[in-house]
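quick one before i forget lol
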Amino acid sequence: MAGRPPDHLAARGGEALARRVGSRLRERRLALGSTLTGVAEEAGISVSYLSAVEKGTNMPSLPVLARLVHALRLTLHELLREEDRAQVRTGEIPADEPGARALDHPDLRLRVASLVSAPGERGEAPLPVPGSAVFVFVDRGALVLEVDGASYALGAGDALDAVDVGDIRWESLGERPTISVWGASRPRSRAGR
């Protein structure tokens, strides 16, 4: 975690973190066949507080969390090890369903979209790009991209990346649909530069 901004957990949503931690604690308690009363007593907290923690409405302090994991025969590492895991999603981009589709995960700081476009079709980027770093990968077919007035031709397997983009327009080439995947970072604040 060294070198990461101090807000990396807050960026994922403190409430979401409390729900994930609470859910894991409850799953472990149930797997052990323990009651709320038994775990609360062993951890030195009230049953109502443990219930609120399991529901994700309260996030326990570190000392309380340490007592809870001890009562549940866990370590803090075992409880929190999923927090920095990569988010993996798999699937197909159906070539017969034209248009843009958001693919990003709400916990990511990256917007991701697929674009299936018919031959000769034109348009703007399928996600907001002003001030972003943008990556476009052509999986099938061909596109001409106009990035801030400069044109680039991309075929299957080609990619383009650009930083601090103002505008991107595209045109699908060839005789069959083009499938492309787009990524754009969320623009940085001026103070972060």
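fyi Residues 99-192 form a domain with the Jelly Rolls fold (CATH 2.60.120.10).
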